[in-house]
Design a protein that fits this description.
mainly alpha
């Protein structure tokens, strides 16, 4: 599902200010996939009523948004690519670790996000997210990848899974 980048006109300057900061950060430290997800999250936060972005500094919000989405996507795990520590994100934005963590919590709460969140996970990591593939079948929670293609096609048509695993090319 494509997330919108539309923002209310009165929030456009805030969106633009944060995106300028996050785009530069992504170019230097992350990738385009993170960049798009961060823009989408920023737009979503701009559309909240009232928007939490109306209060606070733009660099702190930029840090908090990246920190929050990084938490969801295991950015702080050195075995992952890309990788960067939460402390380094805060340092780059000139924000204390406690402020970065606090703003990350505000973002996670506003977006109602969590680790392995399908909605705010990176598309490239969907295949490894166990929650993407769990469905209820005959009263049991099962991994749809263990079921027949016919069942997978039904689950896909119903929007229960993002794609048919055998059709996805790495």
């Amino acid at each position: 599902m494509e997330k919108s980048l539309k923002v209310p006109q009165k929030m456009q300057h805030i969106f633009d200010s944060i995106v300028i900061l996050t785009e530069e950060f992504c170019k230097e430290n992350l990738n385009e996939e993170y960049s798009l997800l961060i823009r989408q999250a920023t737009a979503t936060l701009c559309r909240k009523r009232p928007s939490p972005l109306l209060r606070g500094k733009m660099n702190t919000w930029a840090c908090g948004i990246i920190y929050a989405l990084g938490s969801v996507n295991f950015l702080f795990d050195p075995s992952q690519t890309p990788y960067i520590s939460a402390s380094k994100i805060c340092e780059i934005f000139g924000v204390s670790k406690s402020s970065g963590g606090n703003y990350s919590k505000k973002v996670r709460d506003a977006l109602k996000t969590y680790q392995f969140d399908v909605k705010w996970g990176l598309p490239s990591k969907l295949g490894n997210n166990p929650f993407v593939w769990q469905i209820i079948f005959n009263g049991y929670v099962v991994d749809v990848r263990s079921l027949s293609r016919e069942i997978q096609e039904i689950a896909y048509r119903k929007g229960l899974i993002p794609y048919i695993p055998a059709d996805k090319k790495d």
